[in-house]
Design brief:
199 residues, mainly alpha, Arp2/3 complex 21 kDa subunit ARPC3, two-stranded antiparallel sheet, 2 strands, 81% helix
Length: 199
């Protein structure tokens, strides 16, 4: 019971951090979309509590992103929401869940050999999966919007993805995660007394 309480308390803390950071991040815009500030606590939570917890924390992130789309804080996301709420929700929540799940699974698979390597790989996987699912969703479910945004930027779709969507948002998230990886390792190390991962 004590271990379960510690786990629930830890997840509640990570949930609060993710909600606050993502709400703040909703107002930091690069192009039509916002940059995500919550991937680091998702990686830490996924490493400490396991892949299922990572999926949960990623889902929390996705729900807050969806709220920003609905409220109009995320301009590009709001356009997608107005066009098709169900598909927008699927992309927003799905990319978060899969990013957290991937971070937790990779950390769990590698950390027994090297915590540092496991953390760095998880920190890389989280933004890669998050951005990858987002781009895949745009390409498959909202191709006309992607084409229109590229045209408005005066670029073909591939160039717009690389320079407009991926170039700024993804690289900022990836670099931030990699730079703070040593800090993440210390946090995880300090939490070795945490209950066994939920995997």
């Amino acid at each position: 019971m004590n271990q379960k309480t510690k786990t629930l308390t830890g997840l509640a803390l990570f949930t609060a951090i993710i909600v606050v950071l993502q709400l703040l991040g909703s107002f930091i815009k690069f192009g039509p979309f916002t940059i995500s500030l919550v991937l680091i606590p998702i990686v830490v939570g996924a490493a400490v509590y396991g892949p299922k917890a990572g999926a949960y924390l990623g889902g929390v992130f996705g729900v807050v992103v969806l709220i920003a789309c609905i409220a109009g804080w995320d301009i590009g996301g709001n356009m997608l929401w107005n066009a098709n709420p169900f598909l927008t929700a699927l992309i927003c929540v799905g990319k978060g869940v899969l990013a957290g799940l991937a971070a937790g699974a990779i950390y769990s698979a590698v950390a027994h050999k090297s915590r540092m390597v496991g953390t760095v790989l998880a920190a890389i996987a989280c933004p890669v999966v998050n951005t990858g699912i987002f781009l895949l969703g745009l390409n498959l479910l909202f191709p006309q919007f992607l084409a229109d945004w590229a045209s408005a930027a005066g670029a073909d779709i591939a160039t717009y993805i690389l320079t407009g969507l991926v170039g700024i948002n993804f690289l900022a998230e990836l670099v931030l995660n990699i730079v703070v990886s040593p800090v993440i390792v210390r946090i995880i190390g300090a939490r070795l007394g945490t209950p066994k991962a939920l995997s």
